[in-house]
Design brief:
It contains eight helices and seven strands, in the order ααβαβαββαβαβαβα. It is α/β, with parallel strands linked by helices. The protein starts with a helix and ends in a 7-residue tail after the last helix.
Amino acid sequence: MAKRTIKKDKTDEVVTRQTIEDEHRIRKAFSDKDWAEIKSSDSWVIFKVMAEFVEGFEKLSKIGPCVTIFGSARTKPSNVYYKMAEDIAYKLVQHGYGVVTGGGPGIMEAGNKGANRAGGKSVGLNIFLPFEQKGNIYIDPDKLITFDYFFVRKVMFMKYSQGFIVMPGGFGTMDELMEALTLIQTKKIGRFPLVLVGKKFWKGWLSWVKDSLLEDGMIHEDDLNLFSIVDTPEAAVKVIDDFYSKYLLSPNF
């Protein structure tokens, strides 16, 4: 009983500290700043952003054709989707691609693990988070980059990926998927294959897209062709291969 009380007290302490920090950020955002403070703060951010872009471009320009695998960081190794992601990554390497992930645990770890097991390039674009996400052990040491800014990291995913494999995931996974769809739809980037894995998982999302977005005229029916939904590793890799064969294209490296 004493152990439970101690654990609860620690949890309450963490929640309280987080609440105080959140309140401080909110108040700080509305506080007045003088010109010197604004100039100093913004200039430092600009240099940090530039440094992240430079490091990303320098390292990733050398990796060759790669496919990015997205998915939940909370997926356990015993989960069927973890095993599928590892298998997909393994097969992608066999088909001549390297694998890029967000560098963390869960599906990301599975992707890097599969690429590593197949002897291919295993890239991790990690990010500093409050929960102290660390790069997983299956990333090539010279291909791990850790970012402070999500938007810089997103540019790297888009610029250096020949395709996206989107496994089941949460807000971060949805964010990457919707950004890719938006950029392709608006022709801000060239089209590349987007493969959603797990028909059961994506069923509700697809119904919402059709019944709400399409039905209300917010997207065009052709936009439904911008992505594929499959159920097996073999089908996922086939979409990538067929895409480049269909358009008589080769990966952009």
